[in-house]
Amino acid sequence: MSEQKKTKIQEKESVLTKKDLNKCYRRLSLWGETSLNFERMQAIGWCNAMVPALKKIYTKKQDLAAALQRHLQFFNTELMFGNLIFGPSIALEEEKAENSNKIPDELITSFKTGTMGPVAAIGDTIHWGTAWTLGTAFAGALAARGALSAAAVLLGLVVGCEIVAYMLFCLGYSTGRRSFAQIMKSGLLNEILDGANILGMFMMGVLSSSLVTAEPALKIGKFVLKDTLDGIVPGFLPLLIVFGVYYLIRKKQVSTAKIVLLIIAIGIAGSVIGLF
Asked: Which residue windows are transmembrane per the record (predicted)?
């Protein structure tokens, strides 16, 4: 390899080391949402996570101050999948440090604000709506039976989410601002969402049958209400309760607190009249 080619490769090498990037990731993972406020939401935690990289990228005080101000603007997304924005943001700052005319301030800001909404929708669906909900529900079912493996399930859930978040961060940084667009165009996330929905419905059915119990004690002669309902569909009443709660939350926007009080009231009333 000629000396000229070696020089070009060296010029393209990042000034940030793996250690620098890992430090940024740890800051976002640990403290990304510790300073939430209505004015800036996650911006302070986000900016704090960017500091190790920005200090190394910008050697001039005024350039560093300008970069910090950019990342203190309002920002809010789901932080696990938010690494698809975090990684490219660091890569954009590196490009801007090399050529400020090529990467204006508005490009970095518009990239963050333009992608935080779609990423939040994806992250909330996959991370919190599916993985975390099902994982904690499964751990709760194990804990209700006195199984110590419930703690292992929770630990595995946390570790698994952390691994995914770090992989997304590395992917985002390595591919730059094109990463989010590439992932969206690939259709991979749509397949993941479809799979998550199928898994969610399957798990909700399993958990509903094991955790929701409602055994009517009503008997009139030879008529036994429980046997009649089970003859229609095994576990019909628990299933009916699950869909009833879902209907109240999704269609009627009834708060969970009111639903809990309603279930308690129905349980007490049913016990008094001998239904349960």
From this structure: 126-144, 150-171, 192-212, 232-249, 256-275
